[in-house]
């Protein structure tokens, strides 16, 4: 199959409701000329898991990234996943180079951690959080990570590179500070999407033949209740610790409160009793023992907790001082933020070929085989 040069754009938390609420004529034109698909994100619906899934074309059972914060089930020692040490699958950049599809590949992300995780195989790798000086000279100064402007800068950097360097394969992922703080109908949310749309239109005008995919890593919903599943179990005589899968260093976004968590039991023989107790806890929608969780959600079985819990639409999990408390935060991680769009333009594939956001990467790999 002959392939065009490819641009994959992952709009962090760029779910249907944000697209529908915004004035995005250029994205709509791409969808009209190509397709708009309602698809699934990978669960847990968090940034690390889904960006790595897209950028490797595989599920976590293969690439190994199941969370933002890894806890060793045997030692209890935890660490942030912020580089490629945990990555078990090759990136699309590596495969594109090895297959001779691309002489030059490029990665553009907002967060430094995602750059360190995915940059293997890239010729150009830029994080807006800490951009190379030459990009500041070419594109302008960068605003802080907790700003709307940083994503606009990132897309302008992509456009600059496409025009000057002309890489054949490009992956770009924004950040979701705006969506964590503002609902789809908020003025800043709509302006955020409108400016991104304008830059996307310029990219298409520069090179109308480029194959383009626009998708998201997850959605975003308002949450009103927080739950510490570890405290709930401990208070009922089952010593446990629960780590929200969303946990990372960017706490201004979400306060480390998310819709999924891994529960680590002091005694794994308590698993069945703990699952039943959790399922009877308000706010808990699902609780799966490790083996069932790995099988159901295609997770790497040695990189999850003893129990995988998912929240209802209004609840988040966190490490709290109490078992439960009211909260007001916009966040993600559960099934309810796992529905995302895929827009394909100049694609050789049909909309029905895409079930998950990672199929953008999977089908690229398939085209090379």
How would you characterize this protein structure?
The chain has 2 domains: about 5-220 and about 340-369, Alkaline Phosphatase, subunit A (3-Layer(aba) Sandwich), CATH 3.40.720.10; about 220-330, Domain 2, Phosphonoacetate Hydrolase (Gyrase A, domain 2), CATH 3.30.1360.110. It is built from 15 helices and 16 strands. It has helices at about 15-20, 25-35, 45-55, 60-65, 90-100, 110-120, 135-140, 150-165, 175-180, 185-205, 230-235, 250-255, 270-280, 290-295, 360-369; strands at about 5-10, 35-40, 70, 80, 105-110, 125, 170-175, 210-215, 220-225, 240-245, 260-265, 285-290, 305-310, 315, 325-330, 340-345. Helix 6 (about 110-120) links the parallel strand 5 (about 105-110) and strand 6.
SSE map:
Elements (H helix, E strand, L loop, with lengths): L5 E5 L5 H6 L3 H9 L1 E6 L6 H10 L3 H4 L5 E3 L6 E3 L11 H7 L6 E5 L2 H7 L5 E4 L5 H7 L9 H16 L4 E5 L3 H5 L5 H20 L4 E5 L5 E7 L1 H7 L4 E5 L6 H4 L5 E6 L5 H9 L4 E6 H8 L9 E5 L3 E3 L6 E8 L7 E7 L13 H10 L1
Parallel strand pairs: 1-7, 1-8, 5-6, 5-7, 9-14
Antiparallel strand pairs: 2-16, 3-4, 8-16, 9-15, 10-11, 11-13, 12-13
Helix pairs in contact: 3-15, 8-10
Brief account:
With 369 residues, the chain is α/β, with parallel strands linked by helices. The chain is 35% helix and 22% strand. A seven-stranded mixed sheet has the order 2-16-8-1-7-5-6, sandwiched between helices.
């Amino acid at each position: 199959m002959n392939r065009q040069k490819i641009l994959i754009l992952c709009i962090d938390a760029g779910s249907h409701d944000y697209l529908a609420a915004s004035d995005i004529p250029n994205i709509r034109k791409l969808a009209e000329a190509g397709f708009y698909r309602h698809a699934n994100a990978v669960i847990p619906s968090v940034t690390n898991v889904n960006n790595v899934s897209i950028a490797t074309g595989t599920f976590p059972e293969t690439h190994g990234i199941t969370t933002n914060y890894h806890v060793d089930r045997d030692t209890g020692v935890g660490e942030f996943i912020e580089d490629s040490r945990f990555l078990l699958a090759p990136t699309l950049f590596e495969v594109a180079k090895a297959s001779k599809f691309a002489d030059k590949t490029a990665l553009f992300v907002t967060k430094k951690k995602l750059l360190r995780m995915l940059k293997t195989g890239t010729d150009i790798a830029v994080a807006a959080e800490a951009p190379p000086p030459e990009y500041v000279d070419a594109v302008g100064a960068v605003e802080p990570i907790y700003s709307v402007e940083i994503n606009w800068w990132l897309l302008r950097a992509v456009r600059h590179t496409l025009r000057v360097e002309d890489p054949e394969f490009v992956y770009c992922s924004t950040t979701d500070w705006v969506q964590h703080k503002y609902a789809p109908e908020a003025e800043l949310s709509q302006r955020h999407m409108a400016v991104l749309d304008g830059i996307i239109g310029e990219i298409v005008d520069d090179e109308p033949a480029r194959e383009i995919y626009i998708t998201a890593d997850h959605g975003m919903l308002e949450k009103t209740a927080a739950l510490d599943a570890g405290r709930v179990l401990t208070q009922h005589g089952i010593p446990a610790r629960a780590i929200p899968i969303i946990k990372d260093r960017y706490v201004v976004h979400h306060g480390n409160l998310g819709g999924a968590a891994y529960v680590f039991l002091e005694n794994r023989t308590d698993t069945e009793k703990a699952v039943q107790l959790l399922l009877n806890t308000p706010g808990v929608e699902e609780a799966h023992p490790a083996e069932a969780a790995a099988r159901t959600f295609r997770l790497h079985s040695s990189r999850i907790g003893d129990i995988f819990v998912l929240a209802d639409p209004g609840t988040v999990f966190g490490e709290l001082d109490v078992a439960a408390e009211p909260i007001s935060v916009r966040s993600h991680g559960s099934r309810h933020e796992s529905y995302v769009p895929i827009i394909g333009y100049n694609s050789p594939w049909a909309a029905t070929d895409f079930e998950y956001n990672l199929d953008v990467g999977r089908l690229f790999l398939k085209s090379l085989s």
